[in-house]
Structures are given as structure tokens and as C-alpha cells.
Specification:
3% of the residues lie in helices and 42% in strands. It has one helix at residues 20-23; strands at residues 8-10, 26-35, 42-51, 63-67, 73-74, 81-84, 92-93, 99-106, 112-122, 137-141, 148-152. A 4-stranded mixed beta sheet has the order 4-9-8-6, with no helix packed on it. Strands 1-2-3 form a 3-stranded antiparallel beta sheet, with no helix packed on it. A two-stranded antiparallel ribbon has the order 5-7.
Length: 155
């Protein structure tokens, strides 16, 4: 806010407020002009506003299903900083629990963008080989928590 109040701003993208979408990308000179109503004296000052281009991170997939902990979520290369909602500040993470993961990235111009993914982590359910004889049954655990499935042989 310029002082004294009551003056007029003028420049690209200025109506009652500065609108960067109207001004466009680049550096813009804005002028603030003020005329003292009591004396009629006028003065102005100028300053610059730089509008940086917007960008969007390449979106992560909507949902990813991970078996075990050997899958990596990758926010993409070339950003100056990474911030995941789990506290990580690296380009990639390897989720170990199910949840919604959000990453915010910042590019070289200082602009930020983010993406969110739902990651469902399933434990590795494959264990050692099991032998079973014909006519017997074997209980297989679907995910260790959500019940089981009977498989019966009928040879």
C-alpha cells in the first residue's frame, strides 16, 4: 500500500487491483500518482512487479497399488526443491503404509506446483512354497487383515 492513501495506481494489469493474468509474464512498471487535495501538489513513484510463468508438475497417477515396499513415487527431475507431506524432501519416496501422498515442487523461478496420489500398500503375501496333497485344503490369506479364502482340491 502506498502512502499517502488516495492516489491512483496505473500500469499493465492494473484496474482496481493488479491482475497478473492481464499483465502477462514479464517485468512491469507500475506508477502510483497522488495529488494533495489541499495544496494541489502532485507526485508519483514507480516500482516494478515481475510476473513469473505458471507451471504444473506432471501429475502422479490417481491411485497406485504397491506390493511390499519396493515401489517408488517419483515427482520428476529438474525442480529445485521437493516437499512431501510425509516430511521427505527428495525427488522420490517409497511408501510403506497406505495413504494419500502429496508432493509440492518448486522450479528455478521460485514458482510452486503440487500433485497428490492415493497409494495403497499391500504386504508381500507370497511366502515359502507350500506342498498340499490332493483332497486336502489350504487357507490362503488375502492380505493378512481382511479375511481368508479356502481353496479345495477335488482330484
Amino acid at each position: 500500500m502506498a502512502l499517502p492513501t488516495g492516489g491512483i495506481y496505473n500500469g499493465p494489469g492494473v484496474s482496481s487491483i493488479f491482475n497478473p493474468a492481464i499483465a502477462g509474464v514479464g517485468t512491469h512498471t507500475i506508477t502510483y500518482s497522488y495529488t494533495n487535495p489541499a495544496t494541489g501538489c502532485s507526485n508519483n513513484c514507480t516500482f516494478t512487479v515481475t510476473v513469473k510463468p505458471t507451471f504444473s508438475i506432471n501429475p502422479l497417477q490417481d491411485t497406485t497399488r504397491i506390493c511390499g515396499t519396493n515401489t517408488t513415487l517419483d515427482a520428476g527431475a529438474g525442480y529445485t526443491s521437493y516437499s512431501w507431506n510425509n516430511g521427505a524432501t527428495t525427488q522420490t519416496i517409497s511408501p510403506t503404509i497406505s495413504g494419500t501422498y502429496k508432493v509440492s515442487v518448486t522450479n528455478a523461478t521460485g514458482c510452486s506446483s503440487d500433485s497428490t496420489i492415493l497409494s495403497i500398500v499391500n504386504a508381500n503375501i507370497l511366502q515359502n512354497d507350500t506342498m498340499i496333497c490332493a483332497g486336502n485344503s489350504l487357507t490362503l490369506s488375502l492380505d493378512g487383515n481382511n479375511g481368508s479364502q479356502q481353496i479345495c482340491s477335488s482330484f
